[in-house]
Write a structure and sequence with these properties.
Helices cover 67% and strands 0% of the residues. It is mainly α and 255 residues long. Helix 1 packs antiparallel against helix 10 and helix 3 runs antiparallel to helix 5.
Length: 255
């Protein structure tokens, strides 16, 4: 068995050790640690930079139900498909009910972005597109166990959402609670989703090799999230916006 990327000497001989390793990955690799998030939550970005973040993140958010449909397609077990299905409904919504994608568009609209432009994904960064599509391909091509394991970043999302809500409302006068509704809703949804996925991998990863695969799937997912912020930082903090990508109207507008 190859060494885990989280460090040598990691023992994966039980479900408890697997969970401990997963939580260590989150503590050291989750994108809450990225410098871009510190700028975003600390009020250090101008409105155009916040727009760029919301625009690019829309592509990830709008692809989640596609990814989840791929995960569902991997399972013959009807009970698992039934359990996983609500994730699609959470993001796509149902007739007469608002879903996560609509709530994200409420955010981008509240930040002054044209909805048709956001939905076109025309202005997103190349790295955003490549990273998100890599996540879909991972769930399609790797084992069903790894597909579910890759969703385990949801274990760490609620703390990030709380930090984001409080920080952005405090520091930006162009942000209000209504446009932050995506994050407040995920405070209830993410723990439920993470609980199922964690229980699944604890039960079904029964060998050290399978537990290692679960850990590496989570590492892959943290990389998917991290590289999107790398691209945002390079383009909109350091100022290297690639051709065709979104360029904010205001070069600087203090929040």
């Amino acid at each position: 068995m190859t060494a885990l990327s989280i460090g040598k000497g990691v023992s994966l001989n039980s479900a408890a050790e697997l969970e401990a390793a997963l939580r260590q990955i989150g503590a050291t690799r989750y994108h809450s640690l990225h410098p871009f998030h510190r700028l975003l939550h600390g009020g250090k970005l101008n409105k155009g930079q916040v727009q760029a973040w919301a625009l690019n993140r829309y592509y990830y958010q709008s692809t989640i139900p596609i990814k989840d449909a791929v995960v569902i397609s991997r399972f013959r077990d009807r009970a698992i498909r039934q359990e996983w299905r609500h994730r699609i409904e959470d993001h796509d919504g149902e007739a007469g009910s608002e879903g996560g994608i609509e709530r994200w568009l409420k955010l981008t609209e509240g930040l002054g972005l044209d909805t048709a432009y956001v939905e076109s994904t025309e202005g997103i960064l190349p790295a955003t597109r490549f990273a998100v599509e890599a996540y879909v391909h991972f769930c399609r091509d790797r084992t069903p166990l790894e597909a579910i394991a890759s969703s385990l970043t949801e274990l760490f999302a609620p703390n990030l959402h709380e930090e984001r809500i409080s920080g952005m409302l405090k520091h930006y006068d162009f942000v209000n609670p209504d446009i932050m509704s995506y994050f407040s809703r995920r405070l209830q949804q993410a723990p439920r989703d993470a609980g199922f996925a964690l229980a699944y991998v604890r039960e079904h990863a029964t060998t050290p090799a399978e537990r290692e695969a679960v850990c590496n799937a989570l590492i892959f997912k943290t990389n998917v999230l991290w590289v999107q912020l790398d691209a945002l930082y390079h383009a909109y903090v350091e100022g290297h916006v690639p051709p065709g990508a979104f360029v904010p109207k205001e070069s600087r507008e203090e929040g």
